Amino acid sequence: MAVRLEFLTQDPEEIALATRYWAMDEDGVYLEKVSELVPFREITQSGLIAKHARTFCQAFDENQACNKCEGPILVTSRTDAKKQFQRSEAPCEACSGALRQEELERRRAAEIELQKQLTSRIDYMRTVSISYADLTDDQRFILLAIDALITPRLAHSTFTEGSCEALAPWEGTSYLTRLFRAGVIWDDPEAARSGTYYLHDGKLQAITSSLQFFLPPDELLGRGAEALETVTERQFTDPEVMTNLWLDYAVGDVLRYLLDQCRVYNHDLDYEDIEKIKATIRFGLHTYSVSQLWFVMWKVVRDAASLANREYYNRQKAAATIPNKIRKQIEWADKQGGIDRCWDRPEHHIAGSVGMAFLTLFEIDEFTGGKQALAKFAQLSAKASTEEVQGVASNFMQGALSRNVSLWAMEQFAGLIRAGFDTNGALDELVRLNPETFSVAIS
Ligand SMILES: [Zn+2]
């Protein structure tokens, strides 16, 4: 017999029933039909015999070997037993139990390790601070735009990625990601709901959409509305980073329009197409406004759609022409003296909080010509140095007045201007040549 029985009863009638139920010949054919085993006490239905027998007898099929310990497999009814020897797909009862136990212990250990790493991260987050004074202009600008979306949480508490989607019309949360990667914004494990953090290869990982972000305190001023004002109310002075931030934003604004149009006409652009188009749009934005480029996107998508309907063309081939058509349209416009049409912002297409900040602080939006927009940022450094010279000049004049040498000072200054110095250079030169006269007042 290939099925070995272990009895959990000493009742001779029960032992006899189980033995008859499992009895088979050498070929594995059962000796009696199950229907011949009823009635047995109160059981009259043959279908219930196997279930009843299980309560006082365990049957192990020696034709099935556990894939871990090679031992026989517990079977519960005649159909489970095999006629020929084979390796079981699932491990035996005892091995399964051991595996479950191992898995349980592994999870418990992982949970303990996760809690350990989280605790040390929470401790670290309580001490982290940054220098608000060292933030770059683009970082401060993005913080200002985030603050406008989630006031007053940036100053006092935490916020999620989801609350930053309205930063821009395209990939709004990417601006938050920039700050996070640069170490300006951090995540607070204590504020996140459970399940946000997990271990992967022993390292702490997190589900980004569930993270709770926060702006750490300034190393000198601490945290709060007043400290945040030093970030959002300082003048912007770096033309390069502000130009790049505007171009990033404006490229996204144009791209969003293009992708919406492509969805309407069922054009599929792949990653490479989009990268190519982004470069072309960025180039175009040095000359044209966002709304002029919306017109170009609109025209190119419509042309591709009519191409798709032509013989020998299909949608995929037509979509593949879009990146080059955009470049051609812009080159053509450069030669023909510009783009004479512009489209309005569609209703569902937001400017976003970054866009609104550009409008408020720099008076530029989708209708501002590319050259005018970039000129706004180029003026930043000039403006900053003007403010500096203003200070030097007023000190210079006060120095001259207090020493009663106004006429002499003006003649000296005029002489340097005639010699070709600009205002700033002339003031610097005067201080250098007459340190005693201007040292107290100017230095
Ligand atoms: Zn086993």
Distance separating the two termini? 108 Å
Fraction of residues in H or I helices:
40-55%
Please work out how many helical segments DSSP would assign: 17
Oligomer: single chain
What is the H/E string? EHHEEEHHHHEEEEHHHHHHHHHHH
Strand content: 5-15%
Give the number of domains: 4
C-alpha geometry: elongated
Structural class: alpha+beta
Q: How large, in whole angstroms, is the Cα Rg?
A: 39 Å
Largest sheet: 4 strands, mixed
Identify low-pLDDT runs. Answer: none
Bound molecules: zinc ion
Mean pLDDT comes to: 91
Number of strands: 8
Question: How would you sum up this structure, described in words?
Answer:
The chain is of the alpha+beta class. The protein contains 17 helices and eight strands. Strands 1, 2, 3 and 4 form a four-stranded mixed beta sheet that branches. A two-stranded antiparallel ribbon has the order 5-8. The longest helix is centred in the N-terminal third of the chain and has 35 residues. It is elongated. The N and C termini lie far apart (108 Å). The model has no long low-confidence stretch (mean pLDDT 91). Bound molecules: zinc ion. Zinc ion binds next to helix 3. The site of zinc ion (ZN) has 8 residues, from helix 3.
